[in-house]
Amino acid sequence: MPRTRPEQLSRLVAVTRAPAGRPVAAFFAAWAVLAVLGSLWAWATPPSASPDEPAHIIRAASVVRGELFGEPSAWGNVVHVPQYVADAHRQTCYAFQPTVPANCTLPAEADPAALVTAPTSAGLYNPLYYALVGWPSLLFGDANGLTAMRVASAVLSALFAALAFAVVMTFRERRMPVLAFAVAVTPMLLFLSGTVNPSAIEATATLAVFCGMLGVTLSPDPARLRGRAVIVAVSAVVAVNARGLSPLWVLAAVAVPLLLTSGRGLAQLLRRPAVLVTIGIVAAGTLAAVGWTLGTNSLANAIAHPEDALQFPGVGASPVTGFQKVFLGTIGYSQGLVGLFGWLDTPAPDPVLYAWGLAIGALCVGALLVLRGRRLLVSWVLVGAFLLLPAVVQAVYIHGGGLIWQGRYNLPLFLCLVIGLAALLGDSVFRARHSRLRLRILVVAAAAVGQLWAFETALRRYAVGSNGSVKTLLFGSPDWAPLGGAPAVLIVAAAAFAVAAVLLFRASGDTAGGRRFTPVAAGLATRPAGLGSRSGRSDLRGPGGSRGTRAPAG
Questions:
Q1: CA-based torsion, 272, 545, 531, 443: positive or negative
Q2: Helix, strand, or coil (residue 531)
Q3: What is the β-pairing status of strands 77-82 and 13-17?
């Protein structure tokens, strides 16, 4: 009986490198670490210290009490909430004044749990996020309820970021995208996750959708298709209902990764029950979100009912003006992606902003120079969407509603850009082991130092003002201090950032994975077009480098 040649065997068996990472363990570790980091920001941030947080706090407390709308007024919808919640508006004496510490003094209330009326400019926003984070206000009768709502928001934001991280850990080429989380998780994302504000959950849930889709097309695995589909479905429903513009970001997160697959691969995906169920769930969630936005006119309320809405500068300007201001101001607006704390009045230190800008620029330039085929196309689309979609949105809105854009609104696309470009690059750069080691040390160490520096800057601004001294913050009597004092908070934060850095360094390392033999007949998909593919396609190869048989996507 003749022996089977290695080349013949490789046509029958597809040999791939089994992911050495453990996605379930990675999920829980990432969830715990990110929840702690977000909660640290909640601890170190005084009440009402993020953009529009009083409005979001009041909205959350009213939604969980069954009041979805309230009565319209020039200051927003008037609803009924506990007195300690309504006081959020009076705790902004330092807003827009970076040199003023957060030492707002309020008169003692006889009954802080008594229901009173309060306006909220978020009164027409989709209630899903507010229901998910507002429930702690039902358990507390004082300001501890506000802190508990912040922690709930931090835990929920961390949940979706951890889902995205776990999916990336299943990629065949995962080292670069895992390391890229050090860039994607900016101080601003953690700051927002530790406040009552839907921006962070919108961003992390959209990232989970994007990573799930990227796993299906860039690193397909039939055994993981159902799990990835569940992540996409749940994350998409939460993401599209987070804010009025969320369906646009989720559409990009779903559609862009599909450019990595061919028409045949897409047709094969559409024959999978898990994919069809996911499409139905995402479509239903999106219809509900769009229905709410159109029914309440929450996006265009300032245009349709200017007497009942806040006004912004630029009303009456042309769409060209709106597009130009946001597009040309991309770098300035990007400050709000990395670190712009308080009421957009406290930027992160310049070296922190420069370091993040350098990392983001290196990813963009590297991808556009190195990639080819479909991966190059997707990288161009990601960069283009990041640059153009915000400008288009502002162009559409400026004439009737004014100039409303803020850098943080682009967080969903920013996260997809960073992780997407890193995943597309994969192992194509820094192939030498010593180069990868240096890159990991540089990125992780710089990110940890930058995070702590930004954290200290924000804490100092709240405690002694932006021009206050570190000596007063640590050893003096600051005008405001978090529970336990500023030194204790900084020590805990330094330890948490150090632990996060060590865990990420290990997760992005070179791990020895065993080989997994998967029969082609089982339906293992080929890798999408990418680096080193001249024809725009890439085929599975056996140990000897021979081409494997094409198989359905999964």
A1: positive
A2: coil
A3: unpaired
